[in-house]
Amino acid sequence: MSERFSATYDIETPVGLDHAAAVLVGEQSTGTFVRLAAETDALRDRAAARVEEIIPTGQSGRPSLPCRLKGKTFDRGVVTISWPVTNIGPSLPNLLATIAGNLFELAEFSAMRLVGLDIPESFAAAHPGPAFGAEGTRELLGVSRDAMIGTIIKPSIGLTIDETAGLVDELAAAGIDFIKDDELQSNGPDNPLPERANAVMAVLNRHADMSGRKVMYAFNITDGIDAMARHADMLEKLGATCAMVSLNWIGVSGLQFLRERTSLPIHGHRNGWGLFSRSPDIGIALPVLQKIWRLAGTDHIHVNGISNKFTETDEVVIEAAKSVQAPIAGTRRPALPVISSGQTAWQVGPTINALGNQDFLFCAGGGIMSHPKGPTAGIAALRQAAQAARARRPVSDFSRDHAELAAAIAHFKAP
Amino acid sequence: MSERFSATYDIETPVGLDHAAAVLVGEQSTGTFVRLAAETDALRDRAAARVEEIIPTGQSGRPSLPCRLKGKTFDRGVVTISWPVTNIGPSLPNLLATIAGNLFELAEFSAMRLVGLDIPESFAAAHPGPAFGAEGTRELLGVSRDAMIGTIIKPSIGLTIDETAGLVDELAAAGIDFIKDDELQSNGPDNPLPERANAVMAVLNRHADMSGRKVMYAFNITDGIDAMARHADMLEKLGATCAMVSLNWIGVSGLQFLRERTSLPIHGHRNGWGLFSRSPDIGIALPVLQKIWRLAGTDHIHVNGISNKFTETDEVVIEAAKSVQAPIAGTRRPALPVISSGQTAWQVGPTINALGNQDFLFCAGGGIMSHPKGPTAGIAALRQAAQAARARRPVSDFSRDHAELAAAIAHFKAP
């Protein structure tokens, strides 16, 4: 009896939940629109998907998405489908082709979101998972207890290499733990990655020689496979400690390749995420996709932040961050959730309280650079906000004897 | 003055089209939510994106997607944004991070679809494009003029290797041009790719020895980079003539790698496509993504079919197929559109008429296997339908002296 993996979908359908689930099962395993003689019982026993659970959740008089099949009522529900692992073996791209393949466009559905994924331990164990995760990143950063503080080079694109290096110098002197390229900054002719890495690592290695602590810089090496390999090798030689990639565009296969190839922590950027998350009626939830990315080996995963400038609610953000910290099938390391988007000292405490821990990377841009007393005070204010949360004291109270935090909450608008 | 690439979006916004376009431009180039001193005029000249055109198209009293920003009216429009190529160089994954990155979730938008992409000739010329495309595939298949006829091994998953080889034998004897694995069939322990390829190619090489014409079989090699390379090499050694991949999961980087690595035509499967296409309010249109896939080197691209079992309208399907056949920036070969999904002899003529040519691969499953006189007649009926279209005669008329076509249109329901 083969082990099985299962996926859970939030669906809406004009044909009834039972029939819709049966269509999904057929389409994604042994069924065809004309029943074939070759679909024997033995074959079905080997390979057929199975409906595990159907939970009705509501009904509507009109379809949420345009739907070719008409209906008087559209039933909403949560259905769980399982497949034998032997259909695909423990292959991540083929897992996606099975659970997220040719199904979102079926005419029997007027909404479909992939919201859950369960894989057996043996499947998870076939993948390396993060080489560093939260704990390994903490060690590299030399931050023993509180949230790690990071920032993103801004403006996102257009700085010269000298300007970038100058900004990195300023941030390192100010006591930052982590800096990253913006996802728009890659390897363009105006700011080639090798030259940028050379200049930035010269600065960071110098600071490390003085302080004994090396700031982690996530260089965006997103590119073709050969270029990513070449650039990861170059980064290692320069003493860099992190490589960043755009997860959705290098693909799961590209990510797996990088995990095998490099000894650097991998900073996973989810740009394009709105395609999967923005609609309540189509898409994939982060708790699902982050499992794939973590199994493939990413160490850091962006999850947005509380009171962000995008559309995700705090609830969705926190659920995403928690999922990145949760175990997968009892195996593999947690990854490090990366909090960002319009973050200031105001959001540090609420993030800690919501997660129940400080094992995250808190990235602020303006929240550091626009602190009225400069970036050193900006970073100090964020650390003080984390100390306040650990001491279970409100920032308004804690800031009385912490001047940088006081200046931050006076300057930045409470979200 | 740097050359520029541009992207066109169908957007909806509560903040007015002009302001929304400015937000998009800022977010995807030099802007930040707190204006930084470093955003100098020189930097903006170098790297800023630019609004090229705004065309208002409508207005609504409520947002199409949940939107954090409130408004009394939501303006709909089509906006075109351009970027300097020097921001990224001719990198496809980084092009996607720029035109399809952190923008779909911006709070200023209640709908956003990426519907157009223009790149300069120099950008296109930096990529190989399809090695075979429509013309090269035609040559390999030995089909000189009419539409190429293909099918998909069904049931999708669960057949043994012997059963698969038996079906391939039957289809080859019946005169098929092309056969493909279903995207659910990859390299699972119940049907390992190497053994399947061995068995299938033994059959097809035998038929080729007799007929002088080798049926093309697209083996699904979707997997990690190393496995894809190993399997592509294996296929070449076996005399196979096509490798299939799940484009969305191996990523653009994975596709580029494969194009460099193998001399086989690449059959691009777009499973997961509904995530990008299903909602009128979020996603990416196929004419955009197919450009990326073609530049990276895929030879065949799935575009669904007329009167399909999914939700796409015929108009969308035909627009997609035409885009795959259109030139890109005056350079690189067209790819071959793959028509499939509930296709029978009824849809051949309308497809030819809509495209104005027969340079496509027409894939039918039940439409061949369920022909009342068997698969040989099923394939003959499809070829006769193509001949009828070329002769500009309706199938009802042409079928009078073409028995297989007559049986097909009597048996299969007109869509």
TrEMBL record, chains A, B:
Keywords attached to this entry: Magnesium, Metal-binding
Cofactor section: Mg(2+)
Q: GO annotations under biological process? A: carbon fixation
Q: What range(s) does the Ribulose bisphosphate carboxylase large subunit C-terminal domain occupy?
A: 136-411
What sequence ranges are listed for the domain Ribulose bisphosphate carboxylase large subunit ferrodoxin-like N-terminal? 15-123
Q: Which family does it belong to?
A: Belongs to the RuBisCO large chain family.
Instruction: Please report the name of this protein according to its UniProt entry.
Output: Ribulose 1,5-bisphosphate carboxylase
